[in-house]
Write a structure and sequence with these properties.
Number of domains: 3
Number of helices: 18
Strand order of the largest sheet: 1-4-3-2-5-6
Shape: flat
Radius of gyration: 26 Å
Oligomer: single chain
CATH superfamily of the largest domain: Ribonuclease H-like superfamily/Ribonuclease H
C-alpha cells in the first residue's frame, strides 16, 4: 500500500478524513459492495480522495456516516464519481447520505462520444494511467483485506479529480456542460427513490428452460429455488455460489430419492447435497405427493394485446429517424441522445409544443433544446390523422 493511501478502520482514525474534507471543495468518491460473492450487496468500502490524500474507509468495522455526511451532503462541495447511480444508492441506503452536488466522469465521457467510458479506458486515454483489473470480482466483504486490494480500491478515486478536469474542459469547449449537469441532477434525484422490493410472482420465470418442464417438475423447481435462497441468505453467499441454475433444473427434473442420488445429479455440488440435501429431498417428496390438479404450471405469457396502432408506429419511426440523425450529427450514441422507450413516450403523449415535450416523462431540457423542433415536426407535419395538430 502506498504512503498516500490511508486505511481507516475506526472512528478515531477518521479525524484525518474530516480534516482533509474540510480543506477540499471537491472530493472523489467510490464504493465497493459484496454483491458478486455475497447474498447481500451491503457496502464494504468507501474510497475517497480529497486535498491530495486518498482514504479507504471500512464500514464493516465502524460507521463512517457521521464523518462523511456533513461534507458529502454539502451542495457547495462537489462529489466526483464514476458511474455514480449504484454507489449513490449504496451511500443513501447503507449510510443515510444524500450527496449534495455531483459530477460523474462516465456521464461526461458519454456526452463527448468517447469510444469507451469505463474508468480504466478513460484514465489510460486521457491521463496515460494504467490501473490493474485484478480485483474486479474480488470479495470485498472478506477480512482482513490485503494491502494490494486496498491499493486497488484506492486507485478508483486517486485520479478522478484530474480526469474530471479534463472532461469538463472538453464539455465546455463542446457546449455540452449544461447537458451533463442536467444528467447529474437526475442521478441525484434517482438515488433518493425507494427501490422496488416487490418480488416476482413466480420465481420459475427467471429460468428460461423451465417453460419446457412438466408441471410436477416446475413445482419441484420452485422447491429448489426456495431451498437455495434460504441457504444463500443463511451463509451470506451469492445464489450462483451455492448452486447453479442448471444444477437446480437438473435436480428438479430428476427428483432423486436419496442424498447419494442428488449428489450424482450432473453439475450438482456433492458437498452441498450431503450437507443440505435432505431438506431439498423433503421438498421434492411434497411435490410427488401432490395430486395433479393441485400442481401449478409454468405461468402463461401475458396476452399480446391489440396490434400497434399504425399511425403511432409510423410516428415512432419518424421520431426515431430524427433521433438517429441528430445522434450522427453530434457524434453520440443514439441511446444517449434519447432512448427508444422515451421516444415511445413522446409519441404516446403527442406534445403540441416545446413546453409539453419537456413535460413528457424522462425527456430532458437539453434534448428539447437540441432537437425539440425536429421531433415536433416529425410528429405533426407528415400524413396520417395526426397531421391535424399544431
Amino acid at each position: 500500500m502506498s504512503r498516500t493511501t490511508v486505511y481507516v478502520e475506526t472512528s478515531g482514525e477518521a479525524g484525518s478524513v474530516e480534516r482533509a474534507l474540510a480543506r477540499a471543495r471537491t472530493v472523489a468518491v467510490d464504493c465497493e459492495a459484496a454483491g458478486y460473492h455475497r447474498y447481500s450487496d451491503r457496502l464494504c468500502l468507501v474510497q475517497l480522495s480529497a486535498a491530495g490524500r486518498t482514504f479507504v474507509l471500512d464500514p464493516l468495522a465502524f460507521d463512517p456516516a457521521p464523518h462523511l455526511k456533513p461534507f458529502l451532503e454539502d451542495p457547495g462541495r462537489l462529489t466526483i464519481m464514476h458511474g455514480a447511480a449504484y454507489d449513490l444508492r449504496l451511500l443513501h441506503r447503507d449510510l443515510g447520505i444524500r450527496v449534495g452536488a455531483l459530477a460523474d466522469t462516465q456521464v461526461a465521457a458519454s456526452f463527448l462520444g468517447e469510444p469507451g467510458v469505463g474508468l480504466q479506458a478513460l484514465l489510460e486515454r486521457h491521463l496515460g494511467v494504467k490501473v490493474s483489473k485484478k480485483y474486479q470480482r474480488a470479495d470485498w466483504a472478506a477480512r482482513p483485506l490485503p494491502a494490494d486490494m486496498i491499493e486497488y480500491a484506492a486507485n478508483d478515486t486517486r485520479h478522478l479529480h484530474r480526469l474530471a478536469d479534463v472532461l469538463q474542459a472538453r464539455l465546455e469547449e463542446a457546449g455540452r456542460l449544461a447537458w451533463a449537469g442536467e444528467e447529474y441532477r437526475r442521478l441525484l434525484d434517482g438515488s433518493l427513490e425507494e427501490e422496488d422490493d416487490a418480488t416476482e410472482a413466480d420465481p420459475v420465470t427467471r429460468f428460461k428452460a423451465a417453460r419446457r418442464l412438466d408441471d410436477r417438475s416446475v413445482a419441484a423447481l420452485r422447491e429448489a429455488i426456495a431451498w437455495r435462497e434460504g441457504i444463500a441468505k443463511r451463509r451470506d453467499r451469492a445464489l450462483f455460489r451455492v448452486a447453479s441454475d442448471a444444477a437446480l433444473l437438473a435436480a428438479a427434473r430428476a427428483r432423486p430419492p436419496s442424498v447419494a442420488a442428488l449428489a450424482a445429479v450432473q453439475g450438482f455440488p456433492s458437498r452441498l447435497a450431503h450437507q443440505e440435501g435432505r431438506a431439498l429431498l423433503r421438498g421434492f417428496a411434497r411435490v410427488e405427493a401432490l395430486p395433479a390438479r393441485e400442481l401449478v404450471p409454468y405461468p402463461r405469457p401475458p396476452a399480446r394485446g391489440t396490434r400497434p396502432d399504425p399511425a403511432e408506429e409510423a410516428a415512432f419511426e419518424r421520431v426515431k429517424e430524427v433521433r438517429n440523425r441528430v445522434a450522427g450529427r453530434l457524434g453520440l450514441d443514439r441511446g444517449r441522445v434519447m432512448a427508444n422507450q422515451v421516444l415511445r413516450g413522446v409519441v404516446a403523449a403527442m406534445p403540441g409544443d416545446r413546453a409539453a415535450l419537456e413535460a413528457v416523462a424522462e425527456v430532458r431540457r437539453w434534448q428539447v433544446d437540441v432537437m425539440g423542433g425536429e421531433l415536433l415536426g416529425a410528429l405533426w407535419q407528415r400524413g396520417g390523422s395526426r397531421a391535424a395538430g399544431p
